[in-house]
Amino acid sequence: MDAEWVLTTLTDAMEALEATIGELESDPEAVDERLPQLLPAIYAKLNYAWNSRELGPEAIDKLDHDALIGFPKDLPL
Question: Is there a contact between 19 and 35 (Cβ–Cβ < 8 Å)?
Fold first, then answer.
């Protein structure tokens, strides 16, 4: 597992979450409308971090887009 890749992808997810928080803080009245629009991108980035953790950047060329951003089938929950 490539720790640098995992940190990069998790940082991307964190930045998306921070942007979402900032947007909702600036307009709390829009939370009902904006949250359903913003949250899926955060989940996709977190899923991408997990699903690409073994292959690193090569995952883009080796995995289907839906497999990259879909909910992980092997995440132990």
Answer: no
